[in-house]
Amino acid sequence: MIPLETNKHYHIYNRANGNEKIFLNDDNYLFFLSKYKKHIDPICDTFSYCLMPNHFHLLIRFKDDFLIEQLMNFNNKNDISTFLSKQFSNFFSSYTQAFNKQQNRKGSLFMKPFKRKEIKDEVYLKKLIHYIHLNPVGAGLCSKPNLWKYSSFNAIVSDKRTNILKSDVINYFDDLENFHFIHTQPTKLSGIE
Fold first, then answer.
1. Is residue 136 within 8 Å of 151, Cβ to Cβ?
2. In sequence order, which residues have a C-beta less than 8 Å from that of residue 23 and are 6 or more positions away?
3. Close Cβ partners of 2 (under 8 Å, ≥ 6 residues apart)
4. Domain limits at 50?
5. Which contacts (CB < 8 Å, 24+ apart) does range 68-73 have?
């Protein structure tokens, strides 16, 4: 498994165990996002995400060494990669415990370990953003990415305040018009998850 490092972009993704779903209703999606904000926002910048009934995708960049070390000192941690992984573990565990209680179930909800891929070039990063936003379209859950409530697409195109780095994302696509245009085209990535 690749180590997590500061100042690097990663595609983080995971799915439910077996044929289960990790989101059964709107409250589940919103709770997942609230836990993400608590556990992951302090350590990551988020470029895009998509939550699907049985899996999710995140495109993130870990914050710089100084910010992470401040959090580590507060939490008495030594190794940055271990600390970053532990934050994700805490996030998944927190969501799973609440989901299990709500659904009267026991055991692990997510596959272990969670999947991660370092993104090393901008071309792939742009393709991945496109892929993430088109995931619900490809799954037949909606006809256009703006119709899926649980992705970063609408936050990026909106004027509303968000924690998504929307200006960075739009700049990768040159401008908002091209961002919209690219998202009307089929994705060229497959087999990511």
1. yes
2. 29, 32, 51, 52, 53, 54, 150
3. 116, 117, 118
4. 9-182
5. 68/6, 68/43, 71/42, 71/43
In a domain, 126, yes or no: yes
In a domain, 129, yes or no: yes
Asked if residue 75 belongs to a domain, the reply is yes
Question: The domain spanning residue 82 has which CATH number?
Answer: 3.30.70.1290
Give the three-class secondary structure for 81: helix
The answer, yes or no, to whether the previous bond of 113 is cis (omega within 30 of 0) is yes
Model pLDDT for residues 6-33, shown as the tens digit of each residue: 899 999 999 998 889 999 999 999 999 9
Helix residue ranges per DSSP H, the chain: 26-39, 65-75, 80-103, 122-138, 153-157, 166-172, 176-182
Q: What are the CA-CA distances from residue 70 to residues 73, 78, 81 (Å)?
A: 5, 11, 14
Mean pLDDT of the chain: 90
Q: Report the domain count for the chain.
A: 1
Spatial contact of 79 and 63, defined as CB atoms under 8 Å apart: no
Q: Residue holding tokens 């619900």?
A: 136
Predicted TM-score (pTM) of the model is 0.91
Residue 167 resides in a domain: yes
